[in-house]
Specification:
Layout (H helix, E strand, L loop, with lengths): L4 E4 L8 E4 L2 E4 L3 E8 L5 E5 L10 H4 L8 E3 L10 E4 L2 E2 L10 E5 L8 E8 L10 E6 L2 E5 L7 E2 L17 E3 L1 E2 L4 E2 L3 E4 L2 E2 L4 E2 L5 E5 L3 E6 L2
Antiparallel strand pairs: 1-4, 2-3, 4-10, 5-9, 6-7, 6-9, 7-8, 11-21, 12-20, 13-19, 14-17, 14-20, 15-16, 17-18
Length: 220
């Protein structure tokens, strides 16, 4: 997936700032994340990295996508029917809270990509630095992303805090935008992952969790 850049806007009070992977994050301030979505009617797997403060509705989060674009979500066992944009209007809606992964099929038939700007807060309004956010993972496949706008190796980065959360035999599966196929799963065995699993801000991926668990992240 293409690199994404998170830029945080100025705020009157900034309570605790963390710098990681050349990104800057702060609690309870408004910012934005530019997430690149492939053109040529290709699929990109993304995740909402910010809370827009207005219910995180599909129709607001990706309002600028061109006609013929599609959003495809996961219900825990299969994909939901695509929500399609036509005549400037989305044919349905869905809640895409921070940490929710989803596929985007860019309606642009030619090669140019589309950059979607997610705008919102790092964590829900009212959460202070040091507060936690939880993504509940069911046993089996979960389509997710980091609830906090961190980038790094999901198997080792303590800010992402996923590697130690998962039980042995769990898997991490990434979508390759270039090949339009899933990459080979990164598997945890004996407490160790077979390879790094690097994610960027706004990237979605599958977690095949061996058991139900809570993925807890701490706001900077």
């Amino acid at each position: 997936m293409k690199n994404k850049t998170l830029l945080i806007a100025a705020a009157a009070l900034v309570a605790g700032v963390v710098s990681s992977e050349a990104q800057v994050y702060s609690a309870n301030i408004v910012g934005y994340a530019n997430v690149v979505m492939a053109g040529a009617s290709q699929y990109t797997l993304v995740a909402n990295p910010l809370d827009d403060g207005n219910g995180n509705q599909l129709t607001n989060l990706v309002a600028g996508l061109p006609n013929k674009s599609q959003i495809i979500t996961w219900n825990g066992s299969s994909y939901n029917g695509a929500v399609v944009k036509a005549g400037g209007i989305w044919g349905g809606n869905a809640t895409l809270a921070p940490g929710t992964g989803f596929f985007v099929k860019n309606g642009i038939a030619a090669s140019p990509s589309f950059t979607n700007t997610f705008v919102g807060t790092v964590g829900a309004v009212g959460l202070a630095g040091g507060s936690t956010m939880t993504n509940v993972l069911a046993a089996g496949y979960n389509l997710v992303g980091s609830q906090v706008a961190f980038a790094g190796d999901a198997t080792t980065d303590p800010n992402i805090n996923l590697g130690t959360t998962l039980a042995n035999k769990s898997q991490l599966v990434d979508w390759n935008t270039g090949t339009q196929l899933f990459d080979a799963a990164v598997v945890k065995a004996g407490g160790v992952y077979g390879s790094p699993f690097n994610i960027t801000v706004g990237q979605g991926f599958f977690v095949n969790s061996k058991s139900a668990t809570n993925w807890v992240q701490t706001l900077p």
